[in-house]
Design goal:
Elements: H1 26-48, H2 53-70, H3 78-95, H4 102-138, H5 149-163, H6 170-184, H7 195-201, H8 203-216, H9 219-257, E1 275-276, H10 289-301, E2 306-310, E3 313-317, H11 319-326
Antiparallel strand pairs: 1-3, 2-3
Length: 327
């Protein structure tokens, strides 16, 4: 086993799977079964809704904010929007049959941390190539033991966290790829899992579990932490989905009871992210910013939205959605 030195980047980085240290005892097997059950419950709920796109973007937004917060980035950082964009786009491609390759992984890294990609390739080209090649093999369905995709995802996410070719943004890239891997393996029909929210809440335990693998090869602590995270995140995400749908029903009821003529608006646009600009409502049926502002003003008067200034422009906040995603 290579010696770990926190002062030396990539020192002691293990290849996967870690055969010598890898054991699946009764406690790990029980946790895998429990995590699988909770994740299946979430996926079943998502699958049953025909309007699932209503909450998919909101869940992805929550995941993006939490993941970036782990790396010390604010919710207003441009990488949050980029994270959302990449996760939504790549999940569709993965469902269409796309599989992870060294090229596709580096592409995601470059989108979220492109200003450091060339430096990372130059300084650590050999170790990165070896590590990413090892990861793509582990993420392949043709790979042998361990067979359980949740177990594999735990190994993969550790390696992404340990590799970190960029100073800050690469942690989010690894967590994003972990969600995509669950979609690839058919465990999620949509990228709806707020796993980073759990990691953020348990940040000390998350960091200690990573360190325990790096220094002691204690894979069990890390795997158990990840499986607990999947169970808790699944139930948390279910709660978010049900509350978002209830909020949409409230919107529709208030609009109907007040006989508002806003049928030209796509109500789902109010549930992707909490902030709505008049320009985001423009469509074939709403062709001017002034018309969009009129509709937003009507919803503001009914207490469904709140107007606030951002820079030189005004935006409207879905305060109900903001509260749900902040808890």
């Amino acid at each position: 086993m290579a010696t770990y030195d926190k002062q030396v980047k990539y020192s002691g980085l293990p290849m996967l799977p870690p055969w010598a240290e890898l054991t699946i005892d009764v406690s790990v097997a029980a946790k895998m079964l429990e995590a699988s059950r909770h994740l299946a419950r979430l996926d079943g709920l998502v699958s049953m809704f025909s309007d699932r796109n209503l909450f998919v973007e909101a869940i992805v937004y929550k995941e993006a904010v939490a993941s970036c917060a782990i790396d010390g980035l604010q919710g207003t950082d441009p990488v949050v929007d980029k994270y959302r964009e990449v996760l939504l786009r790549e999940s569709q491609e993965v469902k269409g049959g796309k599989r992870f390759t060294e090229e596709s992984i580096f592409s995601i890294y470059s989108e979220l941390g492109e200003d450091h990609l060339e430096e990372a390739h130059t300084k650590y080209k050999e170790v990165l190539a070896r590590t990413i090649s090892n990861l793509t093999k582990l993420m392949s369905r043709d790979f042998g033991f361990p067979n359980d995709p949740l177990f594999r995802m735990a190994l993969v996410q550790y390696q992404f966290e340990a590799t970190r070719p960029f100073p800050s943004k690469d942690g989010s890239a690894g967590r994003l790829i972990s969600i995509l891997y669950l979609v690839q393996e058919g465990l999620l029909c949509q990228p709806c899992l707020c796993l980073s929210a759990y990691h953020l809440q348990q940040l000390n335990a998350y960091s200690e579990a990573i360190k325990s693998v790096s220094t002691l090869r204690n894979w069990k602590q890390w795997v158990l932490h990840m499986l607990d995270g999947i169970s808790n995140a699944s139930e948390y995400t279910i709660g978010l989905i049900l509350r978002i749908r209830a909020l949409k029903e409230k919107f529709e009821t208030v609009i109907r009871e007040n006989d508002l003529q806003v049928e030209r608006m796509d109500i789902s646009k109010f549930f992707g992210v909490p902030f709505i600009s008049p320009r985001s409502l423009l469509s074939g049926s709403i062709k001017s910013v002034n018309t969009a502002k009129k509709y937003l003003g009507q919803l503001e008067e009914l207490g469904l939205l709140a107007k606030t200034r951002v820079g030189k422009e005004y935006v409207w906040v879905n305060t109900g959605l903001m509260q749900i995603l902040s808890e």
